[in-house]
Structure formats: C-alpha cells, structure tokens
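Per reviewer request, we include the raw input and output of the structure prediction for the construct analysed in the revised manuscript.
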Amino acid sequence: MIGIVDYNAGNITSVKRALDFIGVESVLSKNPYDLEHATRIIFPGVGEASYAMAQLKKTGFDTFLKDWAKSGKPLMGICLGSQIIFDYSEEGNVPCLGLIHGRIRHLKTVFSEKKACACSETLENPLKIPHIGWNSLAFQNGSSYLLKNIKEGSDFYFVHSYIICPDDEKVIKATVDYGVKIPACVESGSVTAFQFHPEKSGECGLQILRNFCCEDIIEA
C-alpha cells in the first residue's frame, strides 16, 4: 500500500487520482499514524516552503519522514516535496528536512548570478519565472531506477520558481535545460525526488509512478 502525505499543500489529490488510474491502492492522510504500515511513501505538494515546514512540524510528519528515510524505506518527493527534503530553502529562509544535503534557491538569484550550483551553466538571456511547461530530460550519473522504461529526452511538466542545488552532484539523476541545467530528478539511498509532476506528465509520468509502486528499491 502506498501512503501519500497530506500536509495542506496544493495538488495533493492529483497524485491519489493518478494512482487510482493505474490501479494502485493508496491512502491519503494528514496523520502520520495512518501511514505507518505503508510500504512506500509519496511526498508531493505545491506551495511555499516555510508554510509547508510549519505544517509538517504541526502534524508530526517532519519526524515521520526523517525516520522513514533513515529506515531505508522508499520515499518519493514531488515538486515542493522534492525541495524541502533538502537542508534549507531560500523560500521563507527556512531550515528543511535535511534528508539530502543541499539548498533550494530562487531562479531569479540563479539567473542574476549567471550560475547556480555545480551542475549549472552560464545564462545570457534570463527566461520567465516561474518555469512553467514541458521540458525534456537529460539523464545524469546513471539515471534512476524510477526512470526505467522511459526514453531519454522524454517530456515532463514543470511548475516552479525555486531549484534544487544539492551539495553532491552525484545525486542528480536527470536535468532539464532552462537557461541553466536544472536538476529534475535527484536520488540518494531510498529517497528519490522529482522537480516535475509525474502525475501531470502523461504516460511517461504514470510509468514513473508504476516503477515506484511495483519495482524493488535499488540502493544508490
């Protein structure tokens, strides 16, 4: 059974609908107790990082997610959930979960500096913020087991103003080009996270969900 973390962030129910569509049993809950017996956890969300962290602390999901990741059980972060698994976010200047080391930075900052993290390239013509639309993936560092049966160059749907800047480039498993190389998939141990929305990315996105729900976890 798949558990979906509901912490009052937007777009939570779309993940549940996508799992229903592919025939996967799931439980959506605001209470960590309800998800204790899940085999895998999806941590989605759209919204503001400091508000999200306050909600996680209020519900106890902050401790739950840390303990879950520490135990080595599969965890998938999506969009906001792909960001606040890191140490710190510039959005609200808030300490986050620290499941993977790194920071979350605003695209405006990245564009103005003409550089982001170690994975980024220089930018001459800044693009619109937020980054909204379909972009094609380029695989990095051997890709991820969750990208199995997905061709490199496949398109996925993005909506975000902040980007992942991990300390260790090796956790980056796929990027997209939006003036700079933006980490689109990161993976460390049993934690895999996607800046894009698999549940809104057509058949390729559904394949990621199938991979997560049906495949055995592979250690990074």
